[in-house]
Amino acid sequence: MSGTTTAAMRPRHRAAAGAGANRWVVLVVLCVSLLLVALDATVLHVAVPAVTEDLRPGAIELLWIVDVYPLVCASLLILFGTLGDRIGRRRVLLLGYGLFGVASAVAAFAPTAETLILARALLGVGGAMIMPATLSILRQVFPDRRERALAIGIWSAVAAVGAAVGPLLGGFLLEHFWWGAVFLVNIPLMLVSLPVGRILLPESRGERTGPWDVSGALMAAGGLFGVVLGVKRLGGGEAPASPFTVLPLLIGAALLFFFVRRQRRLPHPLVDLRMFRRPAFSTSVGCIVLAMLALVGLELIAAQYLQLVLGLSPLRTGLRLLPLTVAAMAAGLAGARMLRRFGPRRMVCAGFLLTAAAVLTLTAMGGGDNAPLLLSGFVLLGFGLETTLFGAYESMLSEAPADQAGGAAAIGETSYQLGAGIGIALLGSVMNAAYAPGLRSVPGVPRHASRAAGHSIGEAYDVAGRLGGDTGAALRLAARDSFVHGLHVTLLVSAGLLLLGSVIALRLPRIMQCGEPAAPVELPAPREEVPRGEASREEVPREEMPREEVQSRVSA
User: Is there a contact between 262 and 219 (Cβ–Cβ < 8 Å)?
Assistant: First the structure.
């Protein structure tokens, strides 16, 4: 009988070995998924002029073409993240693959602006299905926190690559093909990812009881849609008192309030809000919001500075910002080692402080080009921010229970999107408040022209071109100086927010608590046949039997 016991145990050991061998292949599949979503978030930016020339969208339609993808994606992250915990994360991920591929084909051949908006919205739905599923499957496949930290570092480095490569890839495709080619690049990758993901990815779900809260999921989606829409309108320069800005914010905030109250009362909530009672989890979420708040606003303003103040072309601007991405990749790859050595608290605090130092360094930027200063500032900025985000994401995901990995990943990604939107709105408002006063009293410039020039530096250059002569030159110089002044004020505000983040990060654990590695998830592996008459007798693994029963079976 002992021989039968050993034979019955062999497939289980083989499965575990297969898990150890295949989990890095699973990481590659998950990183390809993330790369697609990150690429699609930025690849359209350089194609906007070509889309405008071909489809002739109105101003509002063009705004929706650009913004509907991140808006829909951010709104549905919690819905699909928690749905994956219920019905299976791989299932949701594969459905997201399919929808992403179909929506990409529709977007590539869209005959009208309305069709393109619809296709971009469907891409947002697909992205919301893919993003939390990748992190939650990664949490399941890498139960050992040390290995999971390395996997998250690679995952975050791929995200940085996707965001940076998007505009460069879009520019290359536009030089050789039509604008729809920026969407067609998704299709062959999806055609490969679907069958490979079906074969290699393990299915996992949370051990949750009770019905899925459909009403709560819709309330969360509607609330996030309203809040993100209102924040994006503020970031786009809309008046804060505008009903199209205030109403979405109020309705979204009300829906989120009722969503939280509902989740607290339900015996089987959609999102277990008790996770926020854990200091490491709630602090990590706050750090993600603050880090993104600083990053996105600074990247936007830096791009304007490089193009409109220094006069660099879009391609040279992208190359100047490339060191930021390279430094972020390096921080992601080194993050696991730094986390083990320094612990979450010191790592995230140091990331915030390093980013604040980079921001203060960049306050030395002026009207002239200083390439060494920009290079050092962007390298410090990229490394510091990625260090912060890595430590916060890893702590948040490790603190969440494994059966709620999808919901936790969705909360992290939603925090990421909200931080980005709030950053554009807040830092953009600070920038405008510091920039506009310098253009109110330029000699020889009419009042209506000064008012128009105060909207943005790009509009100021247009007004200066129409005025011409010495007056136009004076307005152009005043706009450049005012922009540099506004940039310095914005950098100081950003540095203050980053220092606040370093203080908040003191609530994180001092050391990386690894504990005993959990049993790995069983991935597809060869199986041995068990004699038919003895299979049922060995259904319970030997290590899970009481010692007395194991001894009696072996002696028999």
Answer: yes
Rounded CA gap, 430 and 493, in Å? 8
Q: What are 46's two structure tokens?
A: 């350089």
* Measured distance CA(128)–CA(130) in Å, rounded: 6
Per-residue model confidence as pLDDT tens digits over 88-136: 888 888 898 889 889 888 988 888 888 888 998 898 888 888 887 787 7
Angle, vertex CA 67, rays to CA 66 and CA 68, nearest 5: 105
**Amino acid identity for residue 409 in this structure:** A
Q: What is the C-alpha separation between 309 and 369, in angstroms, rounded?
A: 9
pLDDT at 543 over 60: no
Please give the structure tokens belonging to residue 41. Answer: 């978030």
Residue with tokens 């504990």: 515
Q: Are 367 and 407 in contact (CB under 8 A)?
A: no
Q: The tokens 């009770």 sit on which residue? A: 210
Number of H helices, E strands in the chain: 19, 0
Query: How many CA atoms lie less than 13 Å away from 27 in the CB half-sphere?
Result: 21
Dist. CA 351–CA 373, nearest whole Å: 20
Rounded to whole angstroms, how far apart are CA atoms 242 and 452?
A: 19
Nearest to 124 by CA among 78, 68, 162, 79: 68
Ordered DSSP codes for 39-98: HHHHTTGGGHHHHHHHH---HHHHHHHHHHHHHHHHHHHHHHHHHHHHH-HHHHHHHHHH
Region 266-285: mean pLDDT is 80
What is residue 308's DSSP assignment? Answer: I
Q: For the chain, what percent of residues have pLDDT higher than 90? A: 2
Sign of the alpha-carbon torsion through 447, 452, 455, 459: negative
CA–CA distance, 67 with 548 (Å, rounded to integer): 64
**Cβ atoms within 10 Å of 546's Cβ, excluding its own:** 9
Helices (H), 236-278: 243-265
Report the alpha-carbon distance of residue 531 to residue 11 in Å, rounded: 13
- Residue 544 to residue 541: CA distance in whole angstroms: 5
> Amino acid identity of 106?
V
Q: Which two tokens stand for residue 505?
A: 């990060």
How many Å apart are CA 332 and CA 481, to the nearest integer?
Answer: 37
Cα–Cα–Cα angle for 133, 136, 138, rounded to 5 degrees: 105
Residue 353 has pLDDT above 90, yes or no: yes
Distance CA(384)–CA(353), nearest Å, equals 8
DSSP structural state of residue 518? P
Question: Nearest Cα to 93, choosing from 427, 303, 85?
Answer: 85
Q: Which of 76, 2, 15, 3 is nearest to 526 (CA)?
A: 15
Beta carbons within 10 angstroms of residue 548's beta carbon: 8
Tell me how far apart the alpha carbons of residues 16 and 440 are, in angstroms, rounded to a whole number. 71
pLDDT of residue 54: 78
Inform me whether the pLDDT recorded for 18 exceeds 50.
no
Q: Which amino acid is at 169?
A: L
Q: What whole-number distance in Å separates Cα of residue 91 and Cα of residue 6?
A: 34
> Helix, strand, or coil here: 407?
helix
